[in-house]
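User:
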Amino acid sequence: MKYLIDRLIVFNTDDGTLHLPASDDVIKLALPAARLLETFLSSDGKELTREYLLETVWDKHGLHASGSNLNQYVSILRRNLALLGCHELIVTLPKVGFKLNAAISVDVQEAVTAPLVPSSATAMTMGSRRRIIFAGILLIALLSGAVPGYYYYRDVTDGRTVLQTSDSHCDIHYLKDIPEDERKATLNRILNLIDKKGIQCKKNDVIIYSNEVSLSDKGNSRELLSYCHAGKSLEVISCDNFYHYKWDKK
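Assistant: Predicted structure:
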Protein backbone atom coordinates (compact mmCIF):
# COMPACT_ATOMS: atom_id res chain seq x y z
CA MET A 1 0.00 0.00 0.00
CA LYS A 2 1.07 3.58 -0.67
CA TYR A 3 0.15 6.70 1.28
CA LEU A 4 0.42 10.29 0.06
CA ILE A 5 1.49 12.45 3.01
CA ASP A 6 0.85 16.21 2.98
CA ARG A 7 0.42 16.00 -0.82
CA LEU A 8 4.21 15.78 -0.97
CA ILE A 9 5.59 12.42 0.08
CA VAL A 10 4.73 8.89 -0.98
CA PHE A 11 5.21 6.21 1.67
CA ASN A 12 5.36 2.66 0.29
CA THR A 13 4.58 0.08 2.99
CA ASP A 14 5.90 -2.75 0.80
CA ASP A 15 9.52 -1.61 0.80
CA GLY A 16 9.49 1.00 3.61
CA THR A 17 10.49 3.92 1.40
CA LEU A 18 9.65 7.61 1.61
CA HIS A 19 9.67 9.14 -1.89
CA LEU A 20 9.51 12.82 -2.78
CA PRO A 21 8.34 12.87 -6.44
CA ALA A 22 9.19 16.56 -6.84
CA SER A 23 12.92 15.88 -6.49
CA ASP A 24 12.97 12.08 -6.82
CA ASP A 25 14.62 11.83 -3.39
CA VAL A 26 14.14 8.48 -1.61
CA ILE A 27 14.75 7.49 2.01
CA LYS A 28 14.55 3.85 3.05
CA LEU A 29 13.32 3.48 6.62
CA ALA A 30 14.46 0.88 9.12
CA LEU A 31 11.85 -1.84 9.49
CA PRO A 32 10.61 -0.75 12.96
CA ALA A 33 10.37 2.85 11.72
CA ALA A 34 8.38 1.73 8.66
CA ARG A 35 6.01 -0.33 10.83
CA LEU A 36 5.61 2.61 13.20
CA LEU A 37 4.80 5.04 10.38
CA GLU A 38 2.29 2.58 8.86
CA THR A 39 0.61 2.26 12.27
CA PHE A 40 0.27 6.05 12.48
CA LEU A 41 -1.00 6.45 8.91
CA SER A 42 -3.64 3.73 9.31
CA SER A 43 -4.88 5.05 12.67
CA ASP A 44 -7.43 7.53 11.24
CA GLY A 45 -6.10 10.18 13.60
CA LYS A 46 -6.86 8.23 16.77
CA GLU A 47 -4.78 8.67 19.90
CA LEU A 48 -2.24 5.85 20.14
CA THR A 49 -0.86 4.98 23.57
CA ARG A 50 2.80 4.17 24.04
CA GLU A 51 1.87 0.66 25.21
CA TYR A 52 -0.21 0.05 22.07
CA LEU A 53 2.61 1.18 19.79
CA LEU A 54 5.20 -0.99 21.55
CA GLU A 55 2.96 -4.03 21.33
CA THR A 56 1.96 -3.43 17.68
CA VAL A 57 5.36 -2.49 16.27
CA TRP A 58 7.65 -4.72 18.35
CA ASP A 59 6.03 -7.29 20.65
CA LYS A 60 3.64 -8.64 18.02
CA HIS A 61 6.67 -9.43 15.82
CA GLY A 62 8.61 -11.22 18.58
CA LEU A 63 10.82 -8.22 19.39
CA HIS A 64 11.27 -6.29 22.62
CA ALA A 65 11.63 -2.54 22.95
CA SER A 66 11.54 0.18 25.58
CA GLY A 67 10.05 3.63 25.83
CA SER A 68 13.39 5.09 24.78
CA ASN A 69 13.32 2.96 21.61
CA LEU A 70 9.88 4.30 20.78
CA ASN A 71 11.04 7.89 21.31
CA GLN A 72 14.07 7.18 19.13
CA TYR A 73 12.04 5.89 16.20
CA VAL A 74 9.51 8.72 16.45
CA SER A 75 12.50 11.07 16.26
CA ILE A 76 13.81 9.19 13.21
CA LEU A 77 10.45 9.52 11.46
CA ARG A 78 10.17 13.22 12.24
CA ARG A 79 13.68 13.95 10.95
CA ASN A 80 13.26 11.94 7.76
CA LEU A 81 9.88 13.50 7.01
CA ALA A 82 11.31 16.96 7.70
CA LEU A 83 14.15 16.27 5.23
CA LEU A 84 11.48 15.78 2.57
CA GLY A 85 9.50 18.87 3.57
CA CYS A 86 6.83 17.51 5.93
CA HIS A 87 6.95 18.88 9.46
CA GLU A 88 4.95 18.01 12.58
CA LEU A 89 3.08 15.01 11.16
CA ILE A 90 3.35 13.21 14.52
CA VAL A 91 1.98 15.01 17.57
CA THR A 92 3.14 14.07 21.09
CA LEU A 93 0.44 13.56 23.71
CA PRO A 94 2.13 14.02 27.10
CA LYS A 95 1.73 11.01 29.41
CA VAL A 96 -0.38 9.24 26.78
CA GLY A 97 1.39 8.63 23.48
CA PHE A 98 1.12 10.09 19.98
CA LYS A 99 -1.33 10.89 17.18
CA LEU A 100 -1.33 12.21 13.64
CA ASN A 101 -1.62 15.94 13.08
CA ALA A 102 -5.18 16.44 11.76
CA ALA A 103 -4.00 19.49 9.79
CA ILE A 104 -1.79 17.33 7.54
CA SER A 105 -3.52 15.29 4.84
CA VAL A 106 -2.97 11.55 4.47
CA ASP A 107 -4.43 9.75 1.42
CA VAL A 108 -4.13 6.25 0.04
CA GLN A 109 -2.44 6.40 -3.38
CA GLU A 110 -2.41 2.97 -5.00
CA ALA A 111 -1.58 4.38 -8.43
CA VAL A 112 1.64 6.12 -7.36
CA THR A 113 4.82 4.18 -8.02
CA ALA A 114 7.85 4.80 -5.86
CA PRO A 115 11.31 4.01 -7.27
CA LEU A 116 13.61 1.50 -5.70
CA VAL A 117 16.31 2.86 -3.41
CA PRO A 118 19.63 3.10 -5.27
CA SER A 119 22.16 0.56 -4.11
CA SER A 120 24.53 3.41 -3.28
CA ALA A 121 22.20 4.49 -0.46
CA THR A 122 23.43 1.63 1.71
CA ALA A 123 26.94 1.23 0.30
CA MET A 124 29.50 2.79 2.63
CA THR A 125 33.26 2.36 2.78
CA MET A 126 34.67 1.47 6.21
CA GLY A 127 38.24 2.52 6.91
CA SER A 128 38.28 3.69 10.52
CA ARG A 129 37.32 2.58 14.01
CA ARG A 130 34.20 4.75 13.81
CA ARG A 131 33.10 2.82 10.73
CA ILE A 132 33.70 -0.52 12.47
CA ILE A 133 31.22 0.65 15.09
CA PHE A 134 28.88 1.72 12.27
CA ALA A 135 29.01 -1.76 10.71
CA GLY A 136 28.45 -3.47 14.04
CA ILE A 137 25.44 -1.29 14.78
CA LEU A 138 24.03 -2.06 11.35
CA LEU A 139 24.48 -5.77 12.05
CA ILE A 140 22.53 -5.46 15.27
CA ALA A 141 19.90 -3.49 13.37
CA LEU A 142 19.61 -6.41 10.94
CA LEU A 143 19.38 -8.93 13.78
CA SER A 144 16.63 -6.83 15.33
CA GLY A 145 14.64 -6.82 12.08
CA ALA A 146 15.77 -3.38 10.89
CA VAL A 147 16.94 -2.28 7.43
CA PRO A 148 20.31 -0.47 7.55
CA GLY A 149 20.79 3.01 6.15
CA TYR A 150 22.48 6.29 6.84
CA TYR A 151 19.53 7.93 8.55
CA TYR A 152 19.02 4.99 10.89
CA TYR A 153 22.70 4.95 11.84
CA ARG A 154 22.75 8.66 12.53
CA ASP A 155 19.88 8.44 15.01
CA VAL A 156 20.93 5.19 16.67
CA THR A 157 24.37 6.53 17.51
CA ASP A 158 22.78 9.52 19.25
CA GLY A 159 21.86 7.12 22.08
CA ARG A 160 25.13 5.18 22.23
CA THR A 161 27.39 5.09 25.31
CA VAL A 162 31.10 4.32 24.94
CA LEU A 163 31.99 2.32 28.05
CA GLN A 164 35.60 1.45 27.26
CA THR A 165 38.26 2.40 24.75
CA SER A 166 41.72 0.89 24.76
CA ASP A 167 44.83 0.80 22.60
CA SER A 168 45.45 -2.85 23.47
CA HIS A 169 41.91 -4.29 23.74
CA CYS A 170 38.63 -3.86 21.91
CA ASP A 171 36.24 -0.99 22.54
CA ILE A 172 32.92 -1.57 24.29
CA HIS A 173 29.76 0.27 23.21
CA TYR A 174 26.29 0.12 24.77
CA LEU A 175 23.38 1.00 22.45
CA LYS A 176 21.72 3.20 25.01
CA ASP A 177 22.44 6.56 26.60
CA ILE A 178 22.94 5.76 30.29
CA PRO A 179 23.79 8.04 33.26
CA GLU A 180 27.40 8.37 34.36
CA ASP A 181 26.72 6.71 37.73
CA GLU A 182 25.41 3.54 36.03
CA ARG A 183 28.27 3.07 33.61
CA LYS A 184 30.73 1.30 35.91
CA ALA A 185 28.18 -1.35 36.94
CA THR A 186 27.11 -1.80 33.31
CA LEU A 187 30.69 -2.15 32.14
CA ASN A 188 31.36 -4.77 34.86
CA ARG A 189 28.31 -6.74 33.73
CA ILE A 190 29.49 -6.72 30.13
CA LEU A 191 33.04 -7.70 31.15
CA ASN A 192 31.59 -10.62 33.13
CA LEU A 193 29.63 -11.73 30.05
CA ILE A 194 32.78 -11.47 27.94
CA ASP A 195 34.62 -13.61 30.46
CA LYS A 196 31.82 -16.23 30.65
CA LYS A 197 31.74 -16.53 26.86
CA GLY A 198 35.52 -16.94 26.72
CA ILE A 199 35.93 -13.98 24.39
CA GLN A 200 39.50 -12.78 23.87
CA CYS A 201 39.04 -9.11 23.02
CA LYS A 202 41.64 -8.03 20.45
CA LYS A 203 42.84 -4.59 19.47
CA ASN A 204 40.60 -2.77 16.93
CA ASP A 205 37.72 -5.22 17.44
CA VAL A 206 34.47 -4.00 18.97
CA ILE A 207 32.01 -5.26 21.57
CA ILE A 208 28.46 -3.96 21.05
CA TYR A 209 25.91 -4.60 23.81
CA SER A 210 22.15 -4.12 23.94
CA ASN A 211 19.67 -4.89 26.70
CA GLU A 212 15.96 -4.23 26.21
CA VAL A 213 12.92 -4.77 28.44
CA SER A 214 9.38 -4.88 27.07
CA LEU A 215 7.13 -2.16 28.47
CA SER A 216 3.99 -4.15 27.73
CA ASP A 217 5.32 -7.19 29.61
CA LYS A 218 8.13 -6.29 32.00
CA GLY A 219 8.79 -9.96 32.74
CA ASN A 220 10.37 -10.23 29.29
CA SER A 221 13.83 -8.98 28.34
CA ARG A 222 16.55 -9.59 25.77
CA GLU A 223 20.33 -9.17 25.91
CA LEU A 224 22.60 -9.14 22.90
CA LEU A 225 26.40 -9.13 23.03
CA SER A 226 28.00 -8.80 19.59
CA TYR A 227 31.77 -9.30 19.19
CA CYS A 228 32.85 -7.84 15.85
CA HIS A 229 36.20 -8.73 14.26
CA ALA A 230 38.23 -6.30 12.16
CA GLY A 231 40.51 -6.98 9.20
CA LYS A 232 43.81 -5.39 8.26
CA SER A 233 42.10 -2.31 6.83
CA LEU A 234 39.87 -1.99 9.93
CA GLU A 235 36.85 -3.28 8.01
CA VAL A 236 34.41 -5.58 9.76
CA ILE A 237 34.90 -9.21 8.72
CA SER A 238 32.36 -10.92 10.93
CA CYS A 239 30.52 -10.71 14.23
CA ASP A 240 29.86 -13.40 16.85
CA ASN A 241 26.50 -12.81 18.52
CA PHE A 242 25.39 -14.07 21.93
CA TYR A 243 21.77 -13.82 23.06
CA HIS A 244 20.08 -14.20 26.40
CA TYR A 245 16.28 -14.12 26.65
CA LYS A 246 14.11 -13.88 29.74
CA TRP A 247 10.57 -14.91 28.85
CA ASP A 248 7.95 -15.12 31.56
CA LYS A 249 5.19 -17.39 30.17
CA LYS A 250 1.81 -16.52 31.67
